[in-house]
Amino acid sequence: MENGLLHPDRLFPADHATRALARDLFYAVQDLPIISPHGHTDPRWWGENPAFSDPAALFVTPDHYVTRMLISQGVSFESLGIGTDCETDPRKIWQTFAEHYHLFAGTPSRIWLDDAFSRLFNVNERLAPKTANDIYDAIAERLPHPDTRPRALFDRFGIEAIATTDSALDDLSWHIAARESDWNGRVVPTYRPDAIIDPDAQDFNANLDRLGEITGCDTTTWDGYLDAHRSRRLAFRALGATATDHGHPTPMTADLSIADARALFNRVRGGKMTNGDAELFRAQMLTEMARMSLEDGLVMQLHSGAFRGHSSQVYRDYGPDRGFDIPIPVSFPVALRPLLDAVGMDPRLTLILFTLDETTYARELAPLAGVWPCLRLGPPWWFHDSFEGMRRFREMAMETAGVFNTVGFNDDTRALCSIPARHDVARRVDSGWLAEMIVTHRLDETEAYDIAALLAHGLAKKAYKL
Amino acid sequence: MENGLLHPDRLFPADHATRALARDLFYAVQDLPIISPHGHTDPRWWGENPAFSDPAALFVTPDHYVTRMLISQGVSFESLGIGTDCETDPRKIWQTFAEHYHLFAGTPSRIWLDDAFSRLFNVNERLAPKTANDIYDAIAERLPHPDTRPRALFDRFGIEAIATTDSALDDLSWHIAARESDWNGRVVPTYRPDAIIDPDAQDFNANLDRLGEITGCDTTTWDGYLDAHRSRRLAFRALGATATDHGHPTPMTADLSIADARALFNRVRGGKMTNGDAELFRAQMLTEMARMSLEDGLVMQLHSGAFRGHSSQVYRDYGPDRGFDIPIPVSFPVALRPLLDAVGMDPRLTLILFTLDETTYARELAPLAGVWPCLRLGPPWWFHDSFEGMRRFREMAMETAGVFNTVGFNDDTRALCSIPARHDVARRVDSGWLAEMIVTHRLDETEAYDIAALLAHGLAKKAYKL
Amino acid sequence: MENGLLHPDRLFPADHATRALARDLFYAVQDLPIISPHGHTDPRWWGENPAFSDPAALFVTPDHYVTRMLISQGVSFESLGIGTDCETDPRKIWQTFAEHYHLFAGTPSRIWLDDAFSRLFNVNERLAPKTANDIYDAIAERLPHPDTRPRALFDRFGIEAIATTDSALDDLSWHIAARESDWNGRVVPTYRPDAIIDPDAQDFNANLDRLGEITGCDTTTWDGYLDAHRSRRLAFRALGATATDHGHPTPMTADLSIADARALFNRVRGGKMTNGDAELFRAQMLTEMARMSLEDGLVMQLHSGAFRGHSSQVYRDYGPDRGFDIPIPVSFPVALRPLLDAVGMDPRLTLILFTLDETTYARELAPLAGVWPCLRLGPPWWFHDSFEGMRRFREMAMETAGVFNTVGFNDDTRALCSIPARHDVARRVDSGWLAEMIVTHRLDETEAYDIAALLAHGLAKKAYKL
Fold first, then answer.
1. Which domains does chain B have, with CATH numbers?
2. Its catalytic activity (chains A, B, C) (predicted)?
3. CB–CB contact B404 C328 (8 Å)
4. pLDDT at B2 over 60
């Protein structure tokens, strides 16, 4: 490739004049600071600033986008260093990865990986069996250097603020450590209470016991349980949290009477759930979380619609987050109505919606966000965090929702090195979209520049109060 | 903007050669008369020809596309002149509108509004806080003039025929007045019997009593009730109606035995409905309406899939049609089958289908319209009456349905001044689509011109018998 | 048209540079042999090699894409030579077809028909009322010639291998005749056991009796019934079959205990089905078929989601496959899970999924195929075997599934003359897609050429073991 791994015009529209506009829009936003309001970086990175151990541990083993594609073509988990009696030599794992790197042709993963290889490790050749060793060496040699440690990467990436996602039961010690260090990077936790809200979660009752110990609240009663949430939310806020996040199977909400809610809690807590109680409890808790947001100002995020652990065998032998999470159909209007009717017109609430079911973009999410004052649309999530996925989102949601009811970009990643690449892709795709809006005279050029900056930086900062 | 608000090449494809073809196709159809076979203009406008009172009452307060976007960003209904104790100064309402006009960037509303401001009121600057007063004055000063009254606008817009949408219980007095006036514009009513078909409608039983009074039929019996429909349909036909319209929550149809239908009617009429009876009654009535269409030739339209009044509070305090109507998933094949099996092969029936659920375009509606002789596809409806929405409809439905099983464009609006803009957008988007069909050699140039004229004029005229 | 019916650049992107790339990619693959691993050509053609009788019988009467469009615009089945007391003069049927040929503007049928008219019969004018007779004559005159018989067409089309679709009860005599002839074309059967798996099938019990006779197995017991399947699968394999095909209303699967499966079989076989038993039996049988594939290596195909015979009247008077089959919504993750959990990680299984519900491409099918080692995605099916349908598939599925989890193209046709046209369209659309991938720097040019060849030939050959 004459331009190495990264062509400067990548992801821009083909048409000559449109591409020129896209390029100029991109130049105007490419260096804006990164706001990363939702993601899964490891808080230990920020609290301890450790060096990464090796290229396979950095790029292969923990990345479920990578492992899922390899598994789909018959590579074993063991050969990727996952499971009992698995490969332990990172160079061999890397070699397996390189032998199958052609599988990623046309996928977002390849864009992110090539970008990281190129920007951070000066790699200029595509990963392949014959380049595998050289690239391994190029990466491995940089990893011990101070400038490849997490905090240095944070600074090099131009991150203005990053949020992690943390269990409600987490002691947030790494966040405390980061705050107490001499490093000034802004890292904040996000309140993710699934483990104490979802009656189907593993060890749910034990989690509630633990919640009681941590907070000193009586989590055997509905009222004490709600107080315990309030207490934990305050603890998160004290460490900079501006948001909560809820990973529910469906977006169902409920608004029960206090008596009914207490009775439901007692069934759930007492191990006497009947059919539908778990779903109803999760539904009720979304509305309770929204009510608490009115009090404490935390922005609410809802990520629903993933069937987790689609293979029982894989879940049992290799654990969660191995790529076996599959989207299912969802529908929002009926599901969200109880919550919205309860608190949706209150100007203190912000509820950011995410979906894995793109059929809801134009049919439901854009019409909902285009009228309810509390609602905002999160960016294309997970499988849709891609060139085509972002294009579809813009084309299907913007005319009805309007750009001001969106929240910019989330990288949503546990792969640290992919953060700049993901924001780069989003800024390129949005620049291309805006260029086409100009060329078709749906936007003026000046307002397109304003919107480009909002999409890259301003909307996320405002929506997440960062 | 060097070309003012309206660029002559707006909405055409970016590619140079394709744009040139699109422009030529558009020139060939831009001045064809407007057929507006489905919409919500106020019959009083045509019967009385009143002047519009002020810019806010013309462009802001009644337009639910406008109010919904403003509400979504925290503007209050009261500040828009809606509700008790609301703002009553139209200039202040206009100022609020102008301060938030940037929210409409990239939305169809801005295209329609800019077009109306520019064409009708010679406005050449974008509405903004600093231009608000001048634009208000420019509009306000024209409103009393005779050429800005409804009938003059009808003529200026080049409307060949327009249909309103009227309750089955309406006395159609404004239609009579229009006919008896010296004005020759063709305005026809459309039979919309939801209030006497939907058992969940407000005052349903009182509506049926009233229906009995109007028609002299015994609406306490199934047979008398059906006769009353026949009578009202004839009255509508006598005033030029060529169509009926049905706004049902779902497209479910039924074909009960007469005995079962009578029993169902008795339960519904007698206030003894059981679960599912309301839905079943609406379903049965669609088939009855289709049967009556065989007799009287009225074309049938079905608009299903809107969840109306999504906010109880807004509905209670500010009424219907305030932007809180949200699409829900629908599916047609099973739902329509009873009606189709009963009368779908009869050459006398035309049933035009609309959807807010675009997932049905390629999966269901195109395959259905591409085989059932009675079925035609309505244009993209409501939130999908937009550049992207129209493109998706063409791309998803045309290959299987064929253009001849569609019915051209509906403006479907209660915003009179937006009518030419909406037809302009549709003609531009279709010209762009046809240009791409030519460039990719999927259509010959000559047939593309023929199809452009059909989409702009001929198909609507034929399908609606106008 | 200056270039006759077929423009050499048809279906390529409009942008000049992208089109040039597309053209070169297409040149590289246009003459690759055709692998046709799934379709509905008549085995008699291959066994007996008869001449086709007349143009109407070749192009009109049996083609449900053609008849459905004509029916949709009021043409009668009788005038197309279908039904009792129908038109029997093929020239008159042809004239009716020609008079309505404009209806196919912009449809895939026209591309296929024009291609066949042009390539096989040297027709250079569009079919229309005034050209109808000449084109009829041009075709009719070639039909008796040896080079227009099926085996000659097979050779002229450059077919490397073709699979038919055959009832499990078929004696495969035409396949035997083809094998025993002096002709060397590779034609293989496909095991399609719907008639002995679907309890809702006509004569289901009689079919199982017949299955018992053919195989000598006791099909009154679950174990004997399964053995009978094994026996028939072996018979198919002996004649070259590499695949099975399953046409189920839904993709539901089940994995019952042996006791429950036996009891279910007994209810189904004994005419004592209760509600849901038919669906459950089909579901269980998909898992049984997958288990047998582990034993005998047959690749499994699942075509689900068609509502067959949507018009009762048409089905009764004119039979199946008349165009009245309509897609319905489907969802795969929950439905497939029992089968996948049972055998989905086994490297011996290949299960190729097809859908008529495009909403599943990005939401479900790409995520599923992008992780389960057994799963592959079939090409766009039926109504989606079209320019726009193929583009949507590439745009919605490739980023997550990856091209290597797809299986190239299926022509899936019973219209022999359309086979080269269909593969031509697929190769053109894929060349255009790959050209855009290059221009936007999502693929290197060299890998795009490799992928073009895989999509046109290699992936089908490998996935179907042909």
1. 16-51+146-463 (3.20.20.140), 52-145 (1.10.2020.10)
2. D-glucuronate = D-fructuronate
3. no
4. no
